[in-house]
Amino acid sequence: MKILVTYLTVTGNTKKVADAIFGVIEEEKTIQPISEVNDIGGYDLTFVGSPMHGFGLDNTVKEFIEEKAKGKNIALFVTHASPEGDEPLQGWLDSCKEAAAGANLVGFFECQGEMSKELADAMVKLDDPNLAAWGKMRDETLGQPDVTRLERARVFAREAMSKVS
Ligand SMILES: Cc1cc2nc3c(=O)[nH]c(=O)nc-3n(C[C@H](O)[C@H](O)[C@H](O)COP(=O)(O)O)c2cc1C
Questions:
Q1: Roughly what angle, to the nearest 10 degrees, separates helices 147-164 and 13-24?
Q2: N or C: which end of the chain has fewer CB within 10 A?
Q3: Probe residue for ligand 1, chosen from 6, 16, 52 as the CB with the greatest number of ligand atoms within 8 Å
Q4: What pLDDT digit, counting tens, does each position of 38-56 carry?
């Protein structure tokens, strides 16, 4: 079995999850930023990682899945700054999964990732009180994804691989 791990990351959180997943793969494996991947046709399973950007997948990742992953086995992982289990987050995560509707989604993983200072600083200045309050939660995200979340990512990776092998 040939497995690819590909991801987009701006501040490193999604790459941490990608590295954890890559570490537990005992098959023939490759890890590459999404910008370097042209074709996933040669892989039996592709792990695709994205930061949540604007209440859904980053657009580059969305387009990648729509254009290159049609009918292919993919396992999607997403990092977001919202607290896990937060109510609005559930709808945003659903939209991430919907973006993979044309692929064969064999697994989905999400966890919190640290909110960048730049994002927090921009959010707290917004007039919308909900978005401003969200920006103030940065301290509660520091250090994420932590060891517990990375371990959960490893479990997710093993489960996804067991569905394809
Ligand atoms: C432009 C932008 C938009 C974002 N939108 C959301 C969002 O809608 N919901 C959310 O929970 N986090 C959002 N975030 C936070 C990131 O998803 C989160 O910090 C993620 O872990 C960053 O991953 P990375 O370090 O791999 O880039 C946003 C961050 C940026 C920079």
A1: 50
A2: C
A3: 52
A4: 999 999 999 999 999 999 9
**DSSP conformation class of 140:** G
- Closest ligand 1 atom number to CA of residue 79: 21
- The span from the CA of 26 to the CA of 44, in Å, is 14
Q: Convert the pLDDT of each residue in 81-94 to its tens digit.
A: 999 999 999 999 99
Nearest residue (by CA) to ligand 1, atom 16, is 80
- List the domain range (segments joined by +) for residue 62: 2-155
Q: What is the CATH number of the domain that holds 137?
A: 3.40.50.360
Number of domains the chain contains: 1
Give the residues across from 4 on adjacent strands: 30, 46
* Amino acid identity at 17: V
164 found inside a domain: no
